[in-house]
Amino acid sequence: MTHTPDDRFVSVAPFDPNPALLEVERKDLDAPNWLLVWRKFRTHRLGLISGAFLLFCYLLLPVIGFVAPYGPNERHAEHLYSPPQSIHFFHDGEFLGPFIYPMTSEANLQTFQWEFIPDLESPRKLRFFCEGKTYKIAGVIPSDTHLFCPPEVFDEEVVPFFLWGSDRLGRDVFSRILYGAQLSLTVGLIGITVSFVLGIFFGSVAGYFGGTIDWVINRVIEVLRSLPELPLWLALSAAVPSNWSPIAVFFVISIILGLLDWPGLARSVRAKFLSLREEEYVRAAEMMGASSGRVIRKHLLPNFLSHLIASATLSIPAMILGETALSYLGLGLRAPAVSWGVMLNDAQNLASIEIYPWTAIPMLPIVVVVLAFNFLGDGLRDSLDPYQQ
Amino acid sequence: MQILRYAIYRFATMLLTLWVVSILIFIIINLPPGDYLSNQIAELQASGQSAGVAKAEFLRQEYALDRPLWQQYLIWVGFFPGPHGFSGLIQGNFGWSFEFDAPVAEIVGDSLWMTVMVNLAAVLFVYLVALPLGVLAAARARSWVDYTSAFVGYLGLATPNFLLALILFYYGHKHLDLPIGGLMDPIYENAPMSWDKVKSILVHLIVPTFVIGTSGASAMMQRLRANMLDELGKPYVETAIAKGMPPRRMLMKYPLRVAFNPFVADIGNLLPSMVSGSVLVSVVLGLQTIGPDLLQALKSQDMFLSAFVLMFVALLTLIGTMISDVLLVLLDPRIRYEGRKS
User: CB of A31 within 8 Å of any CB in chain B?
Assistant: First the structure.
C-alpha cells in the first residue's frame, strides 16, 4: 500500500487476473456452498481424519474377503482359544521378513485348558497375495487371492495364523472382525435411512401444514421420545420369528433401530419448517401455483438438508451400539451371521474376560468407529454454516 | 398457586401419555404370533399330555386370551370387566406370569424398588459428576482438566455399556476388591433392612452407577461447559472481574445460575437412555432389577410379565421427566406455565 501525493492509496501488490478460487484463506465468499463447507471442514483436523477413516472402512467392505486370511466360519478344531500371535521380522538377529512362530498346543491337566506355547525354533514365513479359501468380491465375483495367508503346509503340518487369537470354535477373530464389519457398519446406514425418511416426512408435514396434524404428530414424537429405547428394541426384536434367514433378520433389526430414532429428527425438521414457511420465497412459490409437495422438496428441504446430514452422522453411532447390545443379549442378529455384537456374545462372562481376553477385541473397532462418527459429525456441524466465523 | 396448577396439568398429561404408551406396549407385546399358552397347548398336544392342556385352556379363559385383541387390552388395563369383573392394571392386578406360574406382582416384587434405586443412584451420579466437572472445564477451558474430561466423556460415550460394565467389574474386583454381581451380599437377600445391608448395597452399587451414568454425565458436562462458556464471554462477567470480585464467587453467583436451567431440563432427555442403560447393565451384571426379568419374559413370550415390566420402565421415565419439568418451572420463572414450547 502506498500513499500517493494526491491522497490516494494504491496497492503495490501486482495485479492477479486469476486469483485462486480454491484457496482456503480467501474471504470473498463467492464460491458455491459446498466449496465453502469443504474449506471450513478441511481445517477441522479430527473430523477430516475420521471422515477419511470411515470412507476407507466403507470402501473396504466389498473386498473384505481379500484382506481376511480366513472365512468367517472356518473352524480349526485343533486351535480352540488360541491366543493372539505377533508377526516377527528378525530370527536370531537375522532378518527373515514377516514370519510367525507356530503354536504348539498342550493340555494342562490341572486347569483343563489348552495351553499354547510358541515354538521359537522354527520360524514360518507368511505368504502374501496368495491363494486361499474362495470368497466373493461384493458378493458377486468369486476370487481366492488373499492379502496374506498363514505359512505353507510342510509335511502335512498345518500352521494356522491367528493375528488376534481364535474363539471357542477355533475361528480366526481377526477375520471375523473384518466380516463382522460388513453387518455392523451397514446396520447404521439402513437404520438412519429409515429414520431419515420417517423423520423428514413427519417433520415436514407437521411443520408445513400445522394445525391438527401438527398437534397429533407432536404428541406422537413426545411419547416416543419419552420412552427408553432399549426395552422397546428388545420387545420388537423378540417379535422377529426365529425361523427367518439371517439376512431377513438383519434387515428387520436395522429397520427396528431406525423406527425409534426418527422423533428427534422430525422435531428439528418441524422447528425449521415453522420458521421457514413464513419466508417470502415460499409464498412466492405458492402463488405461482407450486404444489405443497414441490414447495417442501424444492424450496424448503435444501435449506437445511446439510444440517440433517450432520445430525444423522451423529445418530449412526447410537444404532451401531444398539445393534451390538441387541446381538449381545441374543435378541439381535443370530449365529451364522457375523457382527461385532454376535462376536462379543462370546465375551459374555467374567471368566472369558479373565482367561481369554482377546475374545473382547471386537470392542476396539466398535469404540473406534463410534468415535470416528462422533468426530465427523461434530466437524460437519461446525463447518456447515460457512458464513459464521 | 400457579405452580400447583401447572403440576396438576403436567400430571394429567403424564397420565394421558401413559395411556397411549400402554396401547403401544400392548401392540408390541402381541406382535409375535401366538401367545405363551397357545404355544404350550400345541406342545402338550404334540406330546400327548392332556391334563396340562386342560389347565392351559382354563388359564386361557381365565386371562381372557381367547377374546378379540381389543377386549384383551381393555381387560388388561382394567377398563372392561374380565372373567372376574374389573381387574386390571388400574385395579392393581398386574396379571399372571405363565412361565413362573405366579402373579406378576410377586415375581417382580422387590426388584421394582431396586430398579428405582439403581436409576436414582445413576441420576445422582450424573449430577454430582457433571456439575463440578462442567464448571471446571468451562472455567479452565483448554487446560488439561478440560481435555481429560472431554476424552473420558468421549470414551464413555463410545464404549458399549455392557462391556464397560464387565471390564470395570473385573478390574474393580481384582484391584479394589469390589464385589462381583448382584446388588447385595447373598446373606442379606431376605434379611430385614439393617445398616450392614445398606452398606452392602452401596458397595455393590458403585460399578453399575458408574457404568450407567458415565455417558449421561459426559453429555451433560459438555452441555454445561458450552453454556458456561457462552455466559463467560458476556459483558457482565467482565464487569464483575473488573470490580474485583473473587473469581470463584463470581462464577458461582452469575454464570452458573444462568447455565443451570438447561442442566435441569436435560434430565428429561437423559432419563430414557439411562433407564435403557440400567436394563442392559442389570442383565450383564446380574443385578436384581427388572432388567433380567424383562429379557427372560420377552424370550419366552410371557406376555403379561413383559408388558408390565415395559409399562413400569415407561412410567419411571415419565415420572422423572415430569419432576424435571416442574423443577424447571420452579427454577426459572420466565418459563410459561402452559408447558414448554419445543
Answer: no
Nearest to A171 by CA among A277, A80, A279: A80
β-sheet bridge partners, residue A10: A2
The DSSP-derived string for B212-255 is: HHHHHHHHHHHHHHHHHHHHHTSHHHHHHHHTT--HHHHHHHTH
Nearest to B87 by CA among B74, B98, B78: B78
Please, what is the Cα angle at A351 between B170 and A161, to 5 degrees?
Answer: 110
- Kindly report, residue by residue over A182-202, the tens digit of the pLDDT: 888 888 899 999 998 999 899
Radius of gyration of chain B (CA): 25
pLDDT tens digits, residue range B79-117? 777 777 777 777 777 777 877 778 888 878 778 888 888
Closest Cβ opposite residue A229 in set B273, B284, B318? B273
Radius of gyration of chain A (CA): 28
What confidence score (pLDDT) does residue B339 get? 45
Contact of B221 with B153, CB cutoff 8 Å: yes
Helix (H, G, I), strand (E, B) or coil at B86: coil
Position of cell 419439568?
B325
Instruction: Work out the angle at residue A256's Cα, subtended by the Cα atoms of residues A251 and A259, and round it to the nearest 5 degrees.
Output: 125
Other Cβ atoms within 10 Å of A211 Cβ, number: 8
Q: How far apart are CA A361 and CA A180, in angstroms?
A: 12
Instruction: Name the grid cell of A95.
Output: 532378518
Q: What is the ipTM of this complex?
A: 0.79
Dump pLDDT digits (tens) for A232-288. Answer: 888 888 888 878 888 888 888 888 888 888 888 888 888 888 878 788 888 898 899
Indicate the angle between helix axes A211-225 and A262-276, nearest 10 degrees: 150
State pLDDT tens for residues A137-194: 777 788 888 887 777 766 666 677 888 888 888 788 888 898 889 888 888 899 999 9
A358 contacts A116 by C-beta, under 8 angstroms? no
CA B270 to CA B147: how far, in whole Å? Answer: 23
**CB contact residues (below 8 A), chain B span 12-31, against chain A:** 17, 20-21, 24-25, 28-29, 31
pLDDT tens-digit readout, B48-69:
777 777 777 777 777 777 778 8
Collapsing DSSP states into helix, strand and coil, what is residue B216?
Answer: helix
With CA atoms as reference, report the closest residue to B339 among B319, B322, B314, B317. Answer: B322
Whose cell is 483436523? That residue is A45
Measured in degrees and rounded to the nearest 5, phi and psi for residue A306 equal -65, -40
Beta-carbon count within 10 A of B142 CB = 8
Closest of A365, A331, A28, A6 to residue A180, by C-alpha: A365
What pTM was estimated for this model as a whole?
0.81
| A257 touching chain B per CB within 8 A | no
- For the stretch A93-128, what's the b/e string if a residue is b when 16 or more beta carbons lie within 10 angstroms of its beta carbon? eeeeeebbbbbeeeeeeeeeeeebeeeeeebbebbe
Stretch 165-194 of chain B: residues touching chain A, C-beta under 8 Å: 166-167, 169-170, 173, 180
Give residue for cell 399358552. B37
SS3 assignment, position A168: coil
Q: Which pLDDT score is estimated for B58?
A: 79
For residue A305, what is the enclosing H or E element?
helix A301-328
Find residue A172's DSSP bridge partners: A166
Q: What is the pLDDT of residue A21?
A: 55
B163–A331 CB contact, under 8 Å: no
Residues B126 and B220: beta-carbon distance below 8 Å? yes
A297/A320 Cα distance (integer angstroms): 30
Over residues A355-372, mean pLDDT: 87
